[in-house]
Specification:
The chain is of the alpha+beta class. It is 38% helix and 19% strand. The longest helix is centred in the C-terminal third of the chain and has 27 residues, at 450-476.
């Protein structure tokens, strides 16, 4: 290239050196320019190769670099096609050339419009001011297609580091595609990565996923500084939330739902700290899995219902109270109610079938107590006319919102009083439950509270047992 006649030296007018940039950042800009040209022209893939002399090349097959690309502050074509390209400033190439020169890395640019190298020389009209110039020579190959950046004596490690800035050259798996960008599987090692239009701008230690944002907000456009580094979470958080809220991926939803369980330990990823994201994950999971969302209080107070759900192969997911509040009355993506504890208890109650036990299948001691039912009822004025039968069942239908299963029920539609078989263990237990349900049958009142009702049943049982014994003594005497 040194033998070619020079057609001019172009002052790059670099006013501010990006001290934080290394060689890999400069090569990154060459790759970004090549990828943008490919997107704008629809030409063949960019090539990053090493020739037989050990020189690395970044080659695109677009229209070829022109010297005017070294002058503009903003690339108007890229501004008009911002949805297609990575760059927007039009100064990335100049920054890259200055960085390479600062690190004493030679670069040669080839296109059909001219061949370019770098040189420090006097500024035009000011012989005492030395600045960096692009030396532009006639093209060796006027038919050359595209642009080639050659980097002699650049290590393989620097090339790998430069390629590592781009989603295009990573092996990250796309989990979901949304109108705002892509949700990516987090790398097996290292932090989650935040890309903007395929270019790495930030890393996140506490994110569950990596993200590639392709539709930028005004805040993001403002935050994407010239260096393309140190972009804070506040700039891209809204877009990440929006991607997660419209994601239909079961894997994404299940990952976030599983993270909810870890919140009490403080080992969850940060995405579930966004309440609306966590609630949406529950909606998606509810539509695709047998899940039950409960709070830590539910685990303590509704153990019977939760144990029953586990036996029915439901996956129980513990969520904080604020997220549980977001799920009240909410439907999943298929239009079904999100299964919180009360929803599950209602579903269970509606599908429940009693396991009635005929009198001849009771044990001798159970039959003896069951035979006292009319005598016990007589202590409260006898059975109301509305009661046709008193039945014994192995199982009892749960009451919606109750923390435990009832031991007795008044079924007005069937006109049955149903008592759980376990209450036949003693006269006190059976009598208390029977008189309790007779009261419901006679008055039509519902339970006030389970604790109150259970206490009342026990008291009725003790009183009625004493009264029954007294009555039997006076009858026999």
């Amino acid at each position: 290239m040194g033998d070619a006649p020079q057609t001019g030296k172009f002052d790059l007018n670099i006013e501010r050196i990006l001290e934080g940039w290394g060689i890999c950042h400069a090569i990154r800009e060459a790759i970004a320019n090549a990828l943008d040209e490919q997107s704008l022209t629809g030409t063949k893939d960019v090539e990053i190769t090493k020739d037989e002399d050990g020189v690395w090349h970044v080659r695109d097959y677009g229209r070829g670099l022109r010297n005017e690309h070294l002058t503009q502050n903003e690339d108007q074509e890229k501004q008009r096609n911002s949805n297609k390209v990575i760059g927007k400033f039009g100064v990335g190439l100049k920054d890259a050339l200055a960085t390479l020169h600062r690190h004493r890395v030679k670069v040669a640019i080839t296109s059909k419009h001219g061949d370019i190298t770098l040189e420090e020389t006097a500024k035009h009209g000011f012989n005492n001011v030395i600045t960096l110039h692009a030396v532009i020579c006639p093209p060796k190959d006027p038919l050359f297609v595209g642009t080639d950046f050659a980097f002699p004596k650049v290590s393989d490690q620097e090339i790998r580091a430069a390629k590592n800035f781009f989603l295009r050259f990573s092996d990250e798996e796309v989990l979901d595609q949304t109108k705002y960008g892509q949700i990516l599987r987090r790398p097996n090692s290292g932090d989650a990565r935040i890309y903007v239009k395929g270019l790495l701008v930030a890393k996140e230690e506490k994110f569950a996923f990596s993200y590639n944002i392709t539709s930028l907000t005004a805040a993001m456009n403002k935050a994407l500084n010239r260096e393309r580094t140190h972009v804070g979470r506040t700039a891209y958080a809204d877009r990440v939330k929006e991607m997660l809220l419209i994601s239909q991926s079961e894997f994404v939803a299940e990952t976030l739902a599983n993270d909810l369980v870890l919140m009490e330990r403080g080992t969850n990823h940060d995405e579930v700290k966004w309440t609306e994201v966590a609630a949406n994950a529950c909606r998606i999971l509810n539509a695709s899995r047998k899940v039950l969302f409960v709070t830590s209080t539910d685990l303590t107070n509704a153990r019977d219902s939760i144990d029953h759900a586990i036996k029915d192969n439901y996956k129980v997911i513990t969520v904080p109270d604020n997220i549980r509040g977001r799920l009240q009355g909410v439907k999943d993506i298929q239009g079904n109610p999100v299964r919180i504890l009360q929803v599950y208890q209602r579903e269970w109650a509606e599908s429940f079938e009693f396991t009635f036990v005929p009198e001849n299948k009771l044990t001798a001691s159970e039959r003896k107590i069951y035979a006292l039912r009319k005598q016990i009822a007589s202590l409260d004025g006898g059975l109301p006319r509305s009661v046709r039968d008193i039945r014994i069942s192995e199982t009892m239908r749960p009451e919606v919102g109750a923390v435990s299963c009832p031991v007795g029920l008044w079924e007005p539609d069937k006109k049955w009083i149903i008592i759980k078989r376990s209450q036949l263990r003693s006269i006190d237990a059976f009598a208390g439950t029977l008189l309790h349900e007779i009261t419901h049958a006679r008055t039509g009142y519902v339970d006030v509270s389970r604790d109150f009702e259970e206490g009342l049943t026990c008291s009725l049982g003790r009183v009625s047992a004493v009264a029954l014994k007294t009555k039997n003594k006076s009858t026999t005497s």
